[in-house]
Design a protein that fits this description.
AlphaKG_dependent_hydroxylases; Trimethyllysine dioxygenase, mitochondrial; Double-stranded beta-helix; NE0471 N-terminal domain-like; seven-stranded mixed sheet; dioxygenase; globular; four-stranded antiparallel sheet; disordered N terminus; 23 strands; alpha+beta; single chain; carnitine biosynthesis
Length: 386
């Protein structure tokens, strides 16, 4: 259909040109061209009868909007779009609001700003640890900690009393502790009390945790309370940095890893612990509108039988997985940290892989999983983009 001309009684403003098409409004604002469906424009009306500004919730019943709706009149000035609908209702949108909230605007933005790193980048950044008292007692200390965590996917708090109880207080400063099959606060040594390699003295290759949950745990907290022996350094790898390298070198591998669903499985029958968990999802998870990576699910220990992939895709998937594994195992991507009593590590389990060296002697750790939503909620309330 030939687009209608600008409304004859409302010429386009100098900063905004517009055209009516048969099913949408096209707005050129600055360098951005937005295409806004009429149903979308009616559904998102922020008038008092359509939107409750006190609760920030929609009042309009979306199912009541005519799917063939079209405005009777459109007017645009320097800051605002005015749409008059067939029933006489008037909707107003600020041009800046539309630029931020349109599909075209969101496509140009990232949900979660990050600094991707290898060992050298992280070490040169000299990211400071936050003192326990500042973390617990001041918004400034908490905000600095969360900013570091959001940017790098890891952050440290120092001078924490090395007990499970004090670690719990620390964790609850930023989130609700997520209760899982391992309880709320876990506390373990290498006694193989659970059916998991973590409960041994063996080395652990890089991995993310709880890949066998339908929603893997968002944040993991580690505190080494005691170690009388050698080894046991913690390995940290930025999975998003490795995935970014794959995207640049072989985008077809990245797309396959983001598309193919896999099963991860945890079967446990040790003592009184009986569990059978299955989680399904691709290795790489991206927002479809801007291709931004938001979760990596990588655990070779817990990956189940690959039976969700047809035979003509399996070998290509193995090539893609090998490319990602090679990046994750590059020595210059490995950050090694010696955990010690009083130093608590927070890890973004949706981004950063962790592992450890084999060790000798008695080693005692405690920690927990945190709900990701609550950590991000705390960050947003402090004014951070999360």
């Amino acid at each position: 259909a030939t687009p209608a001309r600008c409304h004859p009684t409302a010429p386009a403003s100098p900063c905004c040109a517009w055209q009516l098409h048969h099913d949408h409004l096209e707005l050129r604002y600055g360098s951005m061209v937005m295409r806004l469906d009429f149903v979308w424009l009616r559904d998102h009306c922020r008038s008092a009868s359509c939107y409750n500004a006190k609760t920030n919730q929609r009042s309009l019943d979306t199912a009541s909007v005519d799917l063939a709706i079209r405005p009777q009149a459109v007017r645009v000035d320097e800051t605002t779009v005015f749409l008059t609908w067939p029933d006489g209702h008037v909707t107003r949108y600020g041009l800046e609001w539309l630029a931020r909230n349109s599909y075209e605007g969101q496509k140009q933005q990232v949900m979660h700003p990050r600094i991707l790193w290898n060992a050298e980048i992280y070490q040169q950044a000299r990211v400071p640890s936050i003192d326990c008292r500042s973390f617990l007692e001041t918004d400034e200390g908490l905000k600095e900690f969360l900013q570091n965590f959001l940017l790098y996917g890891i952050a440290f708090v120092e001078n924490v009393t090395p007990t499970k109880e004090d670690t719990k207080i620390l964790a609850e400063r930023i989130s609700i502790i997520r209760e899982t099959i391992y309880g709320r606060m876990w506390y373990f040594t290498s006694d193989f009390s659970r059916g998991d390699t973590a409960y041994t003295k063996l080395a652990l290759d890089r991995h993310t945790d709880t890949t066998y949950f339908q929603e893997p745990c968002g944040i993991q907290v580690f505190h080494c309370l005691k170690h009388e022996g050698t080894g046991g350094r913690t390995l940290l790898v930025d999975g998003f940095h490795a995935a970014e390298q794959v995207l640049h070198q072989a985008p077809e591998h990245f797309q396959l890893l983001a598309k193919v669903p896999l099963k991860h499985e945890y079967v446990e029958n040790v003592g009184g612990c009986h569990n059978h968990m299955i989680g399904v999802g691709p290795v790489l998870n991206v927002y479809p509108w801007n291709n931004e990576l938001y979760l990596i699910r990588y655990n070779n220990y817990d990956r189940a039988v690959i039976n969700t992939v047809p035979h003509d895709v399996v070998r290509r998937w193995y090539h893609a997985h090998r490319a990602l594994t090679a990046e994750l195992r590059r020595p210059d991507n490995e950050l090694w940290v010696k955990l010690k009593p009083g130093k608590v590590l927070f890890v973004d389990n949706w981004r950063v892989l962790h592992g450890r060296e084999a060790f000798t002697g008695y080693r005692q750790l405690c920690g927990c999983y945190l709900t990701r939503d609550d950590v991000l909620n705390t960050a947003r309330l402090l004014g951070l983009q999360a």
